[in-house]
Automatic annotation (TrEMBL):
Transmembrane segments: none
PANTHER family: DNA UTILIZATION PROTEIN YHGH
Top-level taxon of origin: Bacteria
InterPro entries assigned: ComF/GntX_DNA_util-trans, PRTase-like, PRTase_dom
Record CDD domains: PRTases_typeI
Membership in a protein family: Belongs to the ComF/GntX family.
Name recorded for this polypeptide: Competence protein
Amino acid sequence: MKKCILCGQLFVAKVSFIQLFSWHKQETKCICSNCQSKYMRIPDKHCPNCFGKLSQNKFCLDCINWQKIYGKKLLKNHSLYLYNEAFHDLMVNYKRYGDYALHKVLEELCREDLTKRQADLYVPVPTSPEHLEQRQFDTISSIYSNLVSLTCVLGKKAGLSAQGEKNRAERLRSEQSFFVKKNFTINLKKYKILLLDDIYTTGRTLYHARDALAEVFPNAKISSFTLCR
Ligand SMILES: [Zn+2]
Ligand SMILES: [Zn+2]
């Protein structure tokens, strides 16, 4: 029996047949099925480019907006869950109140899906120096570091307000705050970079992160992955 991190109930963590005979480290579940069921998967009918809400058009309204700026150079994004009330509460406890233990829950919610997404570099969207100081841990790297090998090549400038504290219009107006850390070279001709973040809201953050990378790594095929959309 295991105790659910979220509700404290005891539950039986089932080990699958594949896991039983796997060479990989066995990961047992840390949340019960009742808690898990509160996080809703994005429905099959979603924006084919970013997993957003489908509109009357080919893409969602966010992507249509980005098309005006980027034309055909849209960022392809993959997300797993709807940002519902349960997810919002989870993220508030994790990020605002700095409950580090919850990184295990987030890790569990994306483990299977992320390990299926092959890339040469997995680049986490960085936390601002101020938030790192405040929380003492990097919220994005902590979710993904046990799942894939991270290349922390992006940095974030200090002294800018966080996206989470802004409304939609302010988010969209925010300026580029990412940069590629110096002395980073890659010895591959063609390669895939997967950007990792927690939530795709307007896409502003991920497009900025993509732009910063694309400038330094023009041969890279860059896409993104987030828990929520
Ligand atoms: Zn539970
Ligand atoms: Zn879209």
